[in-house]
Design goal:
heterodimer, A: 314 residues, alpha/beta, Rossmann fold, Heat Shock Protein 90, 2 domains, five-stranded antiparallel sheet, 10 helices, 12 strands, B: 273 residues, Transcription Regulator spoIIAA, 11 strands, elongated
Chain lengths: 314, 273
């Protein structure tokens, strides 16, 4: 890479590649991939089928170089993120991963929100590991807003061969307090489920209600619903044990999305990123498990400074 | 929120109902009684001779909206005062024979273990439980024994060994299978204690060998359930025994994988979807 130092191996790095077309994209990705292969790590490039064809033509093949579809990564980005964390945390031998992400040129609004959350949380979830990400944004087609959030979610920026730290970068905790993070508020529609739990014995009934509302109110695949119900259950258990009963469960169902809010009456939670880092063997694991099993988990204090409120979505 | 237990649907066989408190016991016994009336069985119940009226079986059913006057009137429902004779296997067999001879398609019998312990030693009662398992072999007789959940490990061993139909609470039924336990229903933070106690008891007598956990009938398991399995089998695994988790359904397989159980020392998941 011209004029800048190489990406250090054995650490976490997350770079934004700003490019203005295929030539700069290929150059930037090639520099990253070369370093990855030289470090002895595994390299994976995500793109659309067309982008992958371009990359394969330019970069060729290598035993440690793989290509994957961005659409697969987009389907359940959080569970992919935590699967990567587990791979890195649980591997008995040292693993170094180098991943390239080329977002779809035309993300829809919901996907855009998911992607932005993913881009920020990766800085927390994978921080302790030898993991390197390069996310390529096309300055000609990407909306201004996406570029701005890219600058705020990537600690480093590469542009025209130069790698610098991003002055606009915000750590995940700070980023989640910005409007960019778009933490959803209570859904503006009539809830399908609205119940109060006083103790553990109310849990089976709560699961039953969530399952029924998911079956009648949405058309999501079964594995997504199963993961969502399990995640909601774990957050309810958390509310009953670490917070205080009564715990209020509210659920909204749309054909493509399920949303639950779990509100306890305890003192609130200080760490809004609880459950992001790989847990200690003896430590709490409920939120970490919940984050793996559903689309996203938003932890806040509601009202501000008050009890713990957790919003879960498929 | 209104608490809805799911209870076994058939209540067939020789079952142990475990309960944490009186409300849970009453709810289980009421569900058992309702099922017995539904299948037109002869219903027999043993209770202490001096049982206060509000604690009686008939009052319990009435409290749950089950009218029994007619059943008592025609002799379908009969309550026996506890005595050493009322637990004699020979006498029990003759009562069952009489009921079947008079045309009832099946016989259901229940009582609290504490009632038996009031008239005999726990050791003598354990022998009777063994005989009762034989009595239930024919299929026409089902017996429900009510046990509080705070039992000693030895008593748990006896209970799981002598109740071929399994040990049940409102969500989960645990029964003995070859080399271990079979789980049916749901395990969560509200009922993990029973599973823990049973695993500790069975782990102790399977010292050093494989412990099979047949998860095929388990539809839900949470983090607390996984912790219970790992915690209660830690000693067994520490002695070199393995835990074989067989045939988990989709939800259970995901939680086991999410908790890294597939990589835990001494655990093996077999036949995941």
């Amino acid at each position: 890479m011209k004029g800048t130092e190489a990406i250090p191996a054995q650490t976490f790095t997350h770079d934004l590649l700003l490019h203005d077309g295929p030539d700069q994209l290929v150059d930037g990705v090639r520099a990253f991939v070369d370093q990855g292969l030289r470090s002895g790590g595994q390299v994976l490039i995500h793109g659309t089928p067309g982008q992958l064809d371009t990359m394969r033509d330019a970069l060729g093949t290598h035993a440690r170089l793989d290509y994957g579809l961005t659409s697969d990564l987009f389907r359940q980005p959080m569970s992919k993120l935590f699967a990567t964390q587990r791979l890195l945390a649980e591997s008995p031998y040292p693993v170094e991963l180098w991943a390239v992400g080329i977002p779809s040129p035309t993300p829809d609004r919901a996907m855009g929100t998911r992607w932005v959350r993913f881009e920020s949380l990766i800085n927390e979830v994978l921080a302790p590991y030898a993991f390197h990400a390069l996310c390529a944004y096309d300055t000609r087609t990407a909306p201004k807003r996406l570029i701005a959030t890219g600058r705020a979610t990537h600690p480093w920026i590469t542009s025209q061969g130069y790698r610098t730290t991003s002055p606009e970068y915000l750590a995940p905790g700070a980023f989640h307090c910005t409007a960019w993070a778009r933490v959803p508020g209570p859904v503006d529609m009539r809830p399908e489920v609205n119940v109060v739990l006083h103790g553990m014995r109310d849990l089976p009934r709560a699961r039953q209600l969530v399952a029924r509302a998911a079956a009648t109110g949405s058309s999501l695949p079964r594995d997504e619903v199963v993961g969502f119900i399990t995640a909601v259950h774990e957050v309810l258990v958390n509310g009953l044990t670490h917070g205080l009963p009564p715990v209020y469960l509210t659920m909204w169902a749309k054909p493509s999305t399920l949303t639950c809010r779990v509100l306890d009456t305890g003192p609130g939670i200080s760490d809004q990123l609880a459950g992001c880092t790989y847990p200690d063997p003896a430590g709490p694991k409920g939120l970490w498990l919940a984050r793996q099993l559903c689309g996203d988990v938003y932890v806040t204090n509601f009202p501000p400074g008050g009890s713990c409120s957790v919003l879960l979505t498929t | 929120m209104e608490w809805v237990g799911r209870w076994p649907t058939s209540w067939d066989g020789h079952l142990a109902l475990v309960y944490d408190d009186e409300d849970q016991r009453r709810a289980g016994v009421a569900a058992w009684g309702r099922r017995g009336l539904d299948v037109a069985a002869k219903i027999l119940y043993t209770e202490p001779a001096q049982e206060p009226p509000e604690r009686s079986f008939v009052a319990l059913l009435e409290e749950h909206g089950i009218g029994v006057d007619a059943a008592v009137e025609r002799g379908q429902l009969q309550v026996f005062p506890a005595s050493a004779q009322a637990y004699s296997p020979a006498w029990q067999a003759s009562v069952v024979e009489g009921a079947l001879a008079s045309g009832y398609p099946s016989v259901r019998w229940s009582g609290e273990a504490a009632t038996a312990w009031g008239v005999m030693s726990p050791a003598a009662h354990a022998d009777i439980e063994q005989a009762t398992d034989g009595l239930c072999d024919s299929g026409a007789v089902s017996v429900l024994c009510q046990y509080p959940s705070d039992l000693s490990p030895t008593t748990w061993q006896t209970v799981v060994r002598t109740h071929r139909g399994g040990v049940t609470d409102s969500l989960l039924r645990v029964s003995q299978v070859l080399g271990g336990l079979g789980l049916t229903g749901e395990v969560d933070a509200s009922n993990v204690q029973t599973l823990s106690a049973l695993l500790m008891a069975i782990g102790a007598w399977l010292a050093g060998t494989d412990l099979v956990l047949d998860l095929g009938g388990l539809t839900f398991m949470d983090l607390a359930g996984v912790r219970a399995v790992l915690g209660a089998t830690a000693a067994h695994r520490g002695r070199g025994g393995r835990v074989r988790l067989q045939a988990p359904q989709q939800q259970v397989a995901r939680v086991l994988a999410g908790m890294g159980v597939d990589t835990s020392t001494g655990c093996r998941i077999e036949g995941a979807p």
